[in-house]
């Protein structure tokens, strides 16, 4: 009985994975693209595009520090590629 | 002739350096006060001269000059320092102590970044604009030289666009994040960002929400300022110039840009016009010099109300002369 429940649960998980994971992949990708856009916004200044809103969005800096860290790791870079932004 | 200048809640006085902006702004402020309108005169020029003109210290706080006239000299240095201190303190509550040093470093870099002073000035201007119609019947800005003013004017729009982009993105990103979680498994391989998107981040009063509210609030301040500036029933922009080549060129440019940004240009003050009774060969020669510029001004700006203010024999720094000059500009009492 317990064994049967265990098998059912595993089957349920497998089906879920089968039906849902393509969407999950697509959403995760969409979100990564959004986040890359975000990075572009925020680091535009480092890339030579002046961002007139920078002064008014300084509060986002710590968040960016973390996101930047995740981003460069995702790009396969172990350490921060920017001198101006040392997260690790 | 320019009587309507005193019926607006906000009056901006612009023009090239040295043409007579401070004189004009102060003169109009004195007339407004004389008519019992509570008036605040604000200098945004980093080289403030209101204190010299009124012969008393003014500084970054509203200072009473007469029963219904106050003055203020915005200090962008001080403004930026205060802003960065506030940001620093706020961040220390939001991040792990191990990030303190890096955050401080980032903010110290920001302090000296190009555009910081201007951003600080603009934020203060936006705040002061909001005092009009509330604490004061009228706020008159003695603005910085034209180039700076124009950049200042376009900034709220540019900033709103940037912030819309940033904040809109944050919302979309958060939505996608919660969609991911609803599809089971908060963490998908390669989705390192879930690190930041724990349930606590989206709870009431969470860090994300605090940041979001804070930025929204700041953004609203600029959007409001822009709305006021573009409302011809609220704001008036007065351009001051002299009858000479450079001042005319600058005024054409300023007028063009202000018009492009839909800022209501209300009139021109043509200052330092040689009075007809000034005599001597030297002054005759000068008068012949300025004549074509006066003509050019009348042609190009034929649609704008214009007032000529004569060149006076002395510098203008007594209240009575200023007041008379102001009355002349709004259409009473010509100055002699
Ligand atoms: N119509 C005028 N006649 C004589 N002097 C003037 C006149 N208008 C301005 N001035 C003087 O010219 C100088 C510069 O004027 P100011 O108002 O400070 O210019 P701005 O603020 O545009 O730089 C001041 O010393 C002022 O007293
Ligand atoms: Mg001045």
CATH-level-4 superfamily name of chain B: P-loop containing nucleotide triphosphate hydrolases
Shape of chain A: elongated
Number of domains of chain A: 1
Amino-to-carboxy terminus distance of chain A: 51 Å
Any ligands, ions or cofactors bound here, and which? adenosine-5'-diphosphate, magnesium ion
Strand runs of chain A, count: 0
CATH A-level architecture of chain B? 3-Layer(aba) Sandwich
How far the N terminus sits from the C terminus of chain B, by CA atoms, comes to 17 Å
The DSSP helix count of chain A reads: 2
The third-level CATH topology of chain B is Rossmann fold
Q: Quick one: biggest sheet of chain A? A: none
Number of strands of chain B: 8
Strand order of the largest sheet of chain B: 3-4-2-5-1-6-7-8
How would you portray this structure in words?
The complex is a heterodimer of chains A (88) and B (336). Chain A has 88 residues and is mostly helical. Chain A contains two helices and no strands. In chain B, strand 7 (265-273), helix 10 and strand 8 form a beta-alpha-beta unit. By secondary structure, chain B is α/β, with parallel strands linked by helices. Chain B has one domain (3-330): 3-Layer(aba) Sandwich (Rossmann fold), CATH 3.40.50.300. Chain B has eleven helices and eight strands. The chains are: A mainly alpha (88), B alpha/beta (336). The complex binds adenosine-5'-diphosphate and magnesium ion. Magnesium ion is lined by residues 21-22, 45, 49, 142 of chain B.
């Amino acid at each position: 009985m317990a064994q049967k429940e265990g098998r059912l649960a595993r089957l349920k998980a497998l089906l879920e994975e089968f039906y849902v994971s393509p969407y999950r992949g697509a959403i995760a990708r969409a979100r990564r693209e959004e986040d890359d856009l975000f990075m572009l916004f925020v680091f535009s200044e480092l890339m030579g595009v002046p961002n007139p809103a920078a002064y008014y969005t300084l509060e986002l800096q710590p968040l960016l520090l973390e996101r930047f860290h995740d981003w460069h790791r995702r790009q396969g870079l172990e350490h921060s590629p920017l001198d101006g932004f040392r997260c690790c | 002739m320019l009587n309507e200048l005193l019926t607006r809640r906000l009056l901006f006085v612009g023009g090239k350096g040295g043409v007579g902006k401070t004189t004009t702004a102060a003169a109009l402020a004195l007339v407004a006060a004389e008519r019992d309108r509570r008036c605040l005169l604000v200098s945004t020029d980093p080289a403030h001269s209101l204190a010299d003109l009124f012969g008393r210290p003014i500084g970054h706080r509203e200072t009473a000059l007469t029963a219904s006239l106050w003055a203020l000299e915005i200090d962008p240095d001080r403004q930026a320092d205060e802003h960065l201190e506030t940001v620093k303190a706020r961040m220390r509550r939001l991040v792990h102590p191990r990030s303190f040093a890096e955050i401080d470093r980032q903010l110290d870099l920001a302090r000296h970044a190009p555009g910081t002073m201007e951003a600080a000035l603009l934020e203060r201007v936006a705040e002061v604009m909001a005092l009009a119609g509330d604490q004061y019947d009228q706020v008159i800005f003695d603005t910085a030289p034209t180039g700076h003013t124009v950049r200042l004017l376009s900034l709220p729009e540019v900033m709103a666009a940037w912030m819309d982009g940033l904040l809109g993105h944050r919302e979309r990103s958060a939505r996608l994040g919660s969609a991911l979680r609803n599809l089971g498994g908060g963490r998908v391989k390669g989705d390192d960002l879930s690190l930041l998107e724990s349930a606590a981040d989206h709870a009431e009063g969470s860090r994300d929400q605090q940041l979001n509210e804070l930025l929204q609030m700041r953004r609203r301040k600029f959007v409001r300022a822009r709305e006021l500036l573009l409302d011809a029933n609220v704001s008036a922009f007065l351009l001051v110039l002299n009858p000479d080549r450079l001042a005319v060129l600058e005024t054409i440019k300023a007028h063009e840009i202000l018009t492009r940004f839909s800022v209501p240009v209300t009139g021109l003050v043509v200052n330092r016009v040689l009075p007809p009774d000034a005599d001597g060969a030297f002054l005759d020669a000068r008068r012949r010099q300025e004549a074509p510029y006066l003509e050019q001004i009348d042609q190009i700006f034929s649609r704008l109300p214009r007032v000529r203010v004569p060149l006076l024999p002395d510098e203008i720094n007594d209240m009575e002369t200023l007041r008379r000059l102001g009355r002349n500009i709004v259409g009473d009492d010509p100055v002699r």
